[in-house]
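Hey, I'm writing a tutorial for new members on how sequence and structure tokens pair up, and I'd like a real worked example in the thread rather than a made-up one. If someone can provide the structure for the chain below, I'll link this post from the tutorial.
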Amino acid sequence: MRRIDELYKIERDIGTLADIERAAVRKEKAAPLLESLHAWASSLVHDTLPSGKLGEALVYLRNQWPKLIRYVEDGKVAIDTNLAENAIRPFALGRRNWLFADTVSGARASAHIYSLVQTARANELEPYAYLRRLCAELPAAQTVEQIEALLPWNIKT
């Protein structure tokens, strides 16, 4: 846990840096900590039963290692998936409510709307206002450029 805490401390310290600077600091400070974590975990693998909780965690760490260290190379990538998990949490919690969609196309349409709502939120737009604008302007869009202008990340508030 201390090793992971150190990685998160680095993230707190570099939170306001530009992406390139963030990646440079990660390479300098986080990469050695990750190498140490990998060496430690690798040394435990041979002395740990794979069926126990620690063994399962070590196997998971080893299998996910390439994905874990990816964030060091790119300053845009977060150390964890918390933002994505928080974005999909309302759908996971509401899954039971949506079990009984009458048709496949109705379920698909709901998924499209949920995706638009979450993408609007991720781009700091108020979802209802964005959907109203989208419904008003999309029918008049004639070109790819006009459609792309309505994407949430292209809307200027």
